Amino acid sequence: QVQLVESGGGLVQAGGSLRLSCAASGRGFSMYHMAWFRQAPGKEREFVAAIRWRGGTTYYADSVKGRFTISRDNAKNTVYLQMNSLKPEDTAVYSCAAVSMGAPDYSGTYSQIKSYNYWGQGTQVTVSS
Q1: CA 37 to CA 112: how far, in whole Å?
Q2: 18 - beta bridge partners?
Q3: Most buried pick, 32, 67, 93, 111, via CB within 10 A?
Q4: Which distant-in-sequence residues (6+ apart) come within 8 Å of 39 by Cβ?
Q5: CA distances from 77 to 3, 44, 115, 121, 123 (A)
Q6: pLDDT digit string (tens) for 14-61?
Q7: Going by C-beta distance under 8 Å and a sequence separation of 6 or more, which residues neighbour residue 73?
């Protein structure tokens, strides 16, 4: 079992930056694949970025590629999302999610909500124009 708590959200102007953190408690954080999803008002939750348990492989949605960077520090039980060149359309509640490294076919399912069985409560990011 792992519990996830996000932080770092806030209000920022377009073109600005934010770094989100997701702190995990419980056992075995280093053995979980981690991801960030977001949900804007009136829209469905969507995939943003993911990182494998060893941290060597990352995945990004096309809409954030080149602007966002996911990373993890297994010694601190934390995964990060560095967001640069923010746009108003990035406004959403950002949530982190986790799934055990043993999940089958993760390379084919990392962007799917149903692939993850642990979720945080989310942190609000608002980008003003």
Answers
A1: 10
A2: 83
A3: 32
A4: 45, 46, 92, 93, 95, 122
A5: 11, 28, 20, 17, 18
A6: 999 999 999 999 888 889 999 999 999 999 999 999 999 887 899 999
A7: 79, 80
